[in-house]
Design brief:
The complex is a heterodimer.
Chain A lengths: L1 E9 L4 H14 L3 E6 L9 E9 L11 E6 L2 H7 L3 E10 L13 E5 L1 H8 L5 H13 L4 H11 L8 H18 L1
Parallel strand pairs in A: 1-4, 4-5, 5-6
Antiparallel strand pairs in A: 1-3, 2-3
Helix pairs in contact in A: 1-4, 3-4, 3-6, 4-6, 5-6
Chain B lengths: L3 E4 H11 L4 E4 L7 H9 L6 E4 L3 H13 L4 E5 L1 H16 L5 E6 L26 E3 L4 H18 L3 E6 H5 L1 E4 L46 H14 L2 E4 L6 E4 L2 H13 L6 E6 L1 E3 L15 E5 L7 H9 L5 E4 L9 H15 L1
Parallel strand pairs in B: 2-3, 2-4, 4-5, 5-7, 6-7, 10-11, 10-13, 13-14
Antiparallel strand pairs in B: 1-8, 6-12, 9-11
Helix pairs in contact in B: 1-2, 1-5, 3-4, 8-10
Classes of the chains: A alpha/beta, B alpha/beta.
Chain lengths: ~180, ~350
């Protein structure tokens, strides 16, 4: 099993963070994993992306030239990365930010109104958690419970109050993807 | 301790602390800034000293001073800072002072861009000296190499460089600190260490720490005749894969070698590929190339840089037996597994 995941968005949307969360929970499950951030001439308002690989054997190259799962959170990311998805792969689009539709017939596409959902829950900055939830429902490599446990680990002490709202965002994304598939 | 997910830079800093690094002097530069950040956070808590200097040169001079006092000491930088550190690095080989220098490489020439690269291969020492230079290909190896580098530096009284490409510094991967290499025992005591005016017992401060009767500028250089041959014998490291019956051999280090593994898998059944992956850039594993079988027609040298640097050493090792082809970064495109594959196929077709 090898799963190649590309996550992209605008700088600040939290693309890199959810990639790390997938990697953290995968490694706890005993899987091999690599996380590689984009680096170079990135700028504010441009795209920030990361490549995550989860596998049950040794991972050779951490760089992605194609992806099984691609999560895009803004329009430049959508345009830049939609063609990296392999035939049969999955493209998850934040439809609150991306008005365009994918023209690819050879892949599965899911439109998640992540900003609208985050707004509803009352946490505008939690868009990435909604996208993460959608990924969990589709990919099945990492469980919802494992991510919940990681959220609890991340928010401790004074920050503990943020754990539940984040879990709710993940759950909403998860349910949204479940309904659509 | 089980495997933990860490960023490469942090993994190397943690390995250094576990190896007994007592002081770190550095200056921030992408893509290695998480190393000083980690030391700033962790080293004071664990009894060490962290100091951000005013420049790379100053940081390296502080490293030299701390080393002369007998401490285990480290610095880290990237290409533009590393060339400033070379002045003191050379002085430390002259005065035979141990230290560990981690270089997380970015693109060049000069300040280049912040893109991860392998542009500092040719800087593993300027003239008149050699330093053991490690080239990790994954984070476990990066941590192990930094850990062992302190022992090697102390054993030979010579600085050790760990040259990681930017991706090794920036990526995250599992690291298991239970698997660090064994500590070297019987390291020579640091009798040469300076401990201040009172402790000097009337001796003059030393400048050259060579064994008695050995001169740097004598009839034959001590390092050339004794120290470096000993290091070459003991510390040369390489991973060799399937070169005996390969049609084409790939020679690569660091992340470029990981890309090669993808290509070898993809081209199974098309071209028989072998690989030589130097884990030390100096001493370079020239002898590994003697294992290449008679079917080999060419060597392809993927490097994450614009002209090719290790390819020169590959040509020396090849001694004219095989042509060597560079594939690397171009103006618009970085090195990727696909570009290595295309190069291999082009070379292969040219041979038919």
């Amino acid at each position: 099993m090898i799963q190649r995941i590309l996550i992209a968005g605008q700088g600040g949307q939290g693309a890199l963070r959810i990639g790390q969360m997938i990697a953290y929970t995968a490694i706890q499950k005993g899987l091999e994993t690599t996380w590689l951030p984009s680096y170079g001439a990135e700028m504010r308002g441009g795209t920030a992306n990361c490549s995550v690989i989860v596998s049950d054997e040794e991972i050779a190259c951490p760089m992605l030239t194609e992806a099984d799962y691609c999560l895009v959170m803004n329009t430049p990311s959508f345009r830049k990365f939609k063609d990296m998805v392999v035939p049969g792969g999955m493209l998850v689009i934040n439809s609150s930010m991306i008005a365009e539709k994918s023209d690819r017939q050879d892949i599965r596409t899911l439109y998640v109104p992540a900003d609208a959902i985050a707004d509803e829950v009352g946490n505008k900055r939690g868009v990435n958690m909604v996208m993460l939830g959608a990924y969990l429902a589709l990919a099945g490599t990492v469980s919802l419970e494992a991510i919940y446990a990681y959220i609890d680990y991340s928010f401790q002490g004074r920050k503990a109050a943020f754990a539940e709202p984040n879990k709710e965002l993940v759950k909403r994304g998860y349910d949204c993807a479940r309904e659509c598939v | 301790m089980a495997k933990v997910l860490m960023k490469g830079n942090e993994a190397m800093a943690e390995a250094a602390i576990q190896a007994g690094c007592q002081a770190f002097f550095g200056y921030p530069i992408t893509p290695q800034s998480e190393i000083p950040e980690y030391f700033a956070r962790e080293l004071p808590k664990r009894g060490g000293l962290f100091l951000q200097a005013e420049s790379e040169l100053a940081a390296m001079n502080m490293v030299m001073g701390a080393s002369a006092s007998g401490a285990r000491v480290m610095t880290s930088t990237s290409g533009p800072g590393y060339c400033l550190k070379l002045e003191t690095l050379a002085a430390m080989t002259l005065t035979r002072l141990p230290a560990v220098v981690v270089v997380v490489m970015r693109s060049g020439p000069a300040f280049g861009t912040m893109k991860a690269a392998q542009e500092d291969y040719r800087m593993n020492g300027n003239g008149g000296y050699k330093v053991v230079t490690f080239a990790p290909s994954n984070l476990q190896e990066a941590a192990e190499m930094v850990y062992e580098a302190f022992d090697i530096a102390d054993q030979y009284r010579n600085p050790v460089v760990v040259m990681a490409d930017g991706m090794i510094g920036q990526m995250m991967e599992g690291v298991d600190y239970d698997k660090m290499p064994p500590k070297r025992t019987a390291l020579p005591p640091k009798t040469w260490a300076l401990h201040g005016r009172g402790a000097r017992a009337g001796k003059k401060p030393q400048l050259l720490f060579l064994p008695d009767g050995m001169g740097h500028y004598g009839a034959k250089h001590y390092c050339e005749t004794q120290l470096y041959p000993e290091i070459i014998r003991n510390e040369t490291r390489v991973e060799i894969t399937d070169v005996e019956d390969a049609d084409i051999v790939l020679a690569a280090y660091g992340t470029a070698a990981r890309m090669c593994k993808n290509v070898i898998r993809e081209l199974q059944g098309t071209v028989r590929l072998g690989m030589i992956r130097p884990k030390t850039l100096w001493p370079f594993p020239y002898e590994a190339f003697e294992q290449i079988g008679p079917k080999c027609k060419a060597i392809v040298v993927p490097e994450i840089n614009i002209i090719g640097q290790m390819i020169d050493d590959v040509r020396i090792a090849s001694a004219g037996r095989w042509p060597a082809h560079h594939v690397g970064d171009s103006q618009n495109d970085f090195l990727t597994p696909n570009r290595i594959r295309d190069k291999v196929l082009a070379v292969w077709e040219g041979l038919q």
